[in-house]
């Protein structure tokens, strides 16, 4: 694993992070559930928790699908090539290439050649949002490339070691990551705690 | 384009051509060669941190490109040849994250391992 220069992280008083979707991207609950699962994978092994909010402007993490030049100096390049990018903490910008063929569920082996699994890329980019750089460990989530029609969503030991070096482990121990297709969302789990500090 | 499942992807979206496919024609190119398209490869390698920015890249397979390829091959666990072999070109053409692998020369995805340069050095020990 690696870190960004200077090892930026979310400050210690911010262990609960909110996320929101760009208002110009009307997304179904199913798509939003993909991101919830991706966040939950990192929450399971860290003290961090995540919950969706409506306000894009005030959210800690802002997720949007954009095509071509979208104003951050890193234009997307159409089908395949660059799929997404996310910035180091505490920026919170998470951009996905709107020209890709993002797939939410199903057997990718029978998918067209250009199909990209949305959750796989989301898990990777959240690693960047939390402070991880790329890794040379091919099995890790933070390996920079992904083959189309491939699903890779499970954190590897390399990913867990890296993120726990930045934030420490989950005080409840490493929890079992969510399983697809429909685990409870992070928010749903948080709501079960009677207003206590949100935790998985 | 977000599809709830695989079967909902229309056939007209089944295209795989992307700009990086052009690099396939560079296969076998060697140091000292000048080939149309090498400047685009240098731009690609610059985008991901392997070559420092330059106002205009040439189509010459120069030592800078060779060194960048060696570092790339180290990072991606490929044979460190400094050449545009099949494995390296296949890796380069894969879809990927837009964040650079090397940032400001101070963050490398494979910082704990030797770079291409030192990996190719031969060490011997007498007994």
Topology overview:
The complex is a heterodimer of chains A (200) and B (127).
Chain A: E1 16-21, H1 29-43, E2 49-52, E3 61-66, E4 82-86, E5 93-97, E6 101-105, E7 115-117, H2 118-130, H3 157-167, H4 186-190
Parallel strand pairs in A: 1-2, 1-3, 3-5, 6-7
Antiparallel strand pairs in A: 4-5
Helix pairs in contact in A: 1-2
Chain B: E1 2-5, H1 38-47, H2 63-75, H3 86-92, E2 96-97, E3 102-103, E4 107-108, H4 116-119
Give a description of the structure.
The complex is a heterodimer of chains A (200) and B (127). Chain A has 200 residues and is an alpha/beta fold. In chain A, 22% of the residues lie in helices and 17% in strands. Chain A contains 4 helices and 7 strands, in the order βαββββββααα. In chain A, the strands form 2 sheets. In chain A, strands 2-1-3-5-4 form a 5-stranded mixed β-sheet. A two-stranded parallel sheet of chain A has the order 6-7. In chain A, a hairpin with a 6-residue loop joins strand 4 and strand 5 (93-97). In chain A, helix 1 crosses helix 2 (118-130). The longest helix of chain A has 15 residues, at 29-43. Chain A is globular, with a radius of gyration of 16 Å. The two termini of chain A are 25 Å apart. Mean pLDDT of chain A is 86; it is low at 181-200. By secondary structure, chain B is α+β, with helices and mostly antiparallel strands. Chain B is 27% helix and 8% strand. Chain B has helices spanning 38-47, 63-75, 86-92, 116-119; strands at 2-5, 96-97, 102-103, 107-108. Chain B has a two-stranded antiparallel sheet. The longest helix of chain B is centred in the middle third of the chain and has 13 residues, at 63-75. Chain B starts with a strand and ends in an 8-residue tail after the last helix. Residues 114-124 of chain B have low confidence and may be disordered. At the A-B interface, strand 4, strand 6 and helix 2 of A face strand 1, strand 2 and strand 4 of B.
């Amino acid at each position: 694993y690696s870190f960004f220069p200077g090892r930026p992280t979310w400050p210690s008083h911010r262990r609960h992070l909110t996320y929101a979707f760009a208002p110009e991207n009307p997304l179904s609950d199913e798509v939003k559930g993909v991101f919830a699962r991706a966040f939950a994978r990192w929450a399971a092994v860290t003290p961090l928790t995540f919950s969706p909010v409506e306000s894009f402007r005030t959210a800690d993490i802002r997720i949007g699908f954009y095509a071509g030049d979208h104003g951050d100096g890193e234009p997307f390049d159409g089908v395949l090539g660059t799929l997404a990018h996310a910035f180091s903490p505490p920026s919170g910008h998470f951009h996905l290439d709107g020209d890709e063929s993002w797939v939410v569920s199903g057997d990718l082996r029978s998918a067209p050649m250009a199909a990209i699994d949305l959750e796989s890329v989301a898990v990777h980019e959240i690693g960047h949002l939390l402070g991880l750089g790329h890794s040379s460990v091919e099995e890790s989530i933070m390996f920079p490339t992904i083959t189309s029609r491939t699903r890779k969503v499970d954190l590897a030991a390399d990913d867990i070691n890296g993120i726990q070096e930045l934030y420490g482990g989950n005080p409840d121990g490493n929890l079992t990551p969510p399983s697809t297709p429909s685990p409870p969302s992070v928010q749903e789990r948080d709501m079960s705690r009677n207003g206590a500090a949100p935790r998985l | 384009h977000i599809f709830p499942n695989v079967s909902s992807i229309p056939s007209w979206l089944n295209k795989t051509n992307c700009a990086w496919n052009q690099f396939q024609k560079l296969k076998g190119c060697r140091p000292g060669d000048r080939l149309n398209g090498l400047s685009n490869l240098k731009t690609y390698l610059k985008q991901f941190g392997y070559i420092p920015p330059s106002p205009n890249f040439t189509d010459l397979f120069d030592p800078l490109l060779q060194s960048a390829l060696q570092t790339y091959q180290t990072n991606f666990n490929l044979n460190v040849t400094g050449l545009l072999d099949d494995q390296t070109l296949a890796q380069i053409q894969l879809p990927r994250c837009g964040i650079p692998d090397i940032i400001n020369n101070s963050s490398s995805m494979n910082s704990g391992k030797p770079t291409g340069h030192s990996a190719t050095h031969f060490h011997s020990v007498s007994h």
